[in-house]
C-alpha cells in the first residue's frame, strides 16, 4: 500500500520531487488505530482518509479566520481518496485503475472545481483595495515576514509567516513554523536517492519483468513511462468514451503486471532500504512531521466532530 505521504518514493521517483501516494486504497481497517489519540502512540503518517479530514478542519479554520477579517469564505470541495492516489510513476491498484484509468477524468474534475471556485469568484467582485486585503488575509504578504525551510537536496522554500492559512495550520499542528520546516523535509527526500534507486539492478530487473508481462498482454512497452507517453497516440481520433476505455484498459494492464511481477513488492522493499539510509540525517524531522500530523488529526476530529 502506498497511501502515506512518503511511503512510496520509489513509485513516484520518476515524476515528482516530493512524496505522494501511488494508486492504492487504504486497507479496510487493517490493524489501524481507531482514533488519533490511539494513533499518537505510534509513529506513522496519515492515511488518505485522515488527510482529507485534516484538510476539512483546516478549511473550517480558514473560514473562521477570514470571516473575522471581514470577508466571506466558502469551504471548497475536498478531494476524495481516489483524488489523492494515482500520482506515481506506475500504478499498483487494479481497482483504482478500473475506476479511473490514469486519472484523466479526475484531473478534469479538479480543473472544473478550480474554475468554479466560489472564493475566486467572490474575490473578483472586490475593489482593488479590498482584493489586496483579501489576498493578504488569506495567503499572507512578504511584508509580514517570511518563513524559510531548507530542502534536503538543496534550495529552500518560503511562505508568509502570517495569514489565515498559516493560522489554520498553526492551530491544527500546534506550531506553524515547526510544522512548515518538518513537512518540507519529510516530504522532499526523494531527490536524495531517486536517481540511484531507479538505476538499481534490482529495480531495473523488476521493470524488465513488468515489460514482459505487458508484452504478453498485448502492450509492448519497456517501462510504465513509455506506456503513458504513447497513450495520446492510442486515443487520437477516438470519441471521449472510446478513448477513456483505451486509457482504462492500459492502466489496468499496467497495475495488473506490477502486481503479477516483482515490481510492486520490489519497489516497496527498495523504498524502505533507501529511505532508511536517510534517517540518520533527517529522522528527527520525519518524527516531528509524523507526530504533528497525528496531533493535527486529533484536533481535526474535535473540530469536525467526526473520524476518518
TrEMBL record:
<protein>
    <recommendedName>
        <fullName>Lipoprotein</fullName>
    </recommendedName>
</protein>
<feature type="signal peptide">
    <location>
        <begin position="1"/>
        <end position="22"/>
    </location>
</feature>
<feature type="compositionally biased region" description="Basic and acidic residues">
    <location>
        <begin position="29"/>
        <end position="44"/>
    </location>
</feature>
<keyword id="KW-0732">Signal</keyword>
<feature type="region of interest" description="Disordered">
    <location>
        <begin position="24"/>
        <end position="44"/>
    </location>
</feature>
Amino acid at each position: 500500500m502506498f497511501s502515506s505521504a512518503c511511503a512510496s518514493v520509489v513509485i513516484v521517483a520518476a515524476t515528482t520531487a516530493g512524496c505522494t501516494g501511488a494508486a492504492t486504497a487504504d486497507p479496510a481497517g487493517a490493524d489501524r488505530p481507531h482514533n488519533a489519540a490511539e494513533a499518537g502512540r505510534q509513529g506513522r503518517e496519515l492515511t488518505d482518509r485522515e488527510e482529507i479530514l485534516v484538510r476539512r478542519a483546516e478549511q473550517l479554520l480558514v473560514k473562521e479566520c477570514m470571516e473575522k477579517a471581514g470577508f466571506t469564505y466558502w469551504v471548497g470541495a475536498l478531494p476524495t481518496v481516489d483524488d489523492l492516489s494515482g500520482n506515481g510513476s506506475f500504478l499498483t491498484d487494479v481497482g483504482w485503475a478500473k475506476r479511473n484509468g490514469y486519472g484523466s477524468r479526475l484531473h478534469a474534475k479538479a480543473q472544473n472545481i478550480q474554475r468554479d471556485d466560489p472564493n475566486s469568484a467572490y474575490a473578483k467582485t472586490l475593489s482593488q483595495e479590498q482584493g489586496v486585503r483579501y489576498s493578504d488575509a488569506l495567503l499572507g504578504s512578504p511584508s509580514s515576514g517570511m518563513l524559510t525551510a531548507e530542502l534536503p537536496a538543496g534550495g529552500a522554500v518560503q511562505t508568509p509567516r502570517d495569514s489565515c492559512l498559516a493560522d489554520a495550520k498553526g492551530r491544527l499542528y500546534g506550531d506553524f513554523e515547526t510544522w512548515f520546516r518538518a513537512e518540507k523535509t519529510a516530504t522532499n527526500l526523494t531527490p536524495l536517492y531517486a536517481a540511484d534507486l531507479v538505476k538499481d539492478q534490482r529495480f531495473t530487473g523488476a521493470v524488465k519483468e513488468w515489460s514482459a508481462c505487458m508484452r504478453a498482454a498485448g502492450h509492448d512497452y519497456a517501462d510504465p513511462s513509455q506506456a503513458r507517453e504513447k497513450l495520446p497516440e492510442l486515443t487520437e481520433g477516438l470519441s471521449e468514451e472510446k478513448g477513456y476505455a483505451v486509457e482504462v484498459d492500459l492502466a489496468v494492464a499496467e497495475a495488473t503486471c506490477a502486481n503479477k511481477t516483482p515490481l510492486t513488492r520490489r519497489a516497496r522493499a527498495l523504498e524502505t532500504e533507501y529511505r532508511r539510509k536517510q534517517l540518520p540525517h533527517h529522522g528527527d524531522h520525519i518524527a516531528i512531521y509524523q507526530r504533528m500530523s497525528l496531533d493535527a488529526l486529533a484536533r481535526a476530529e474535535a473540530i469536525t466532530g467526526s473520524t476518518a
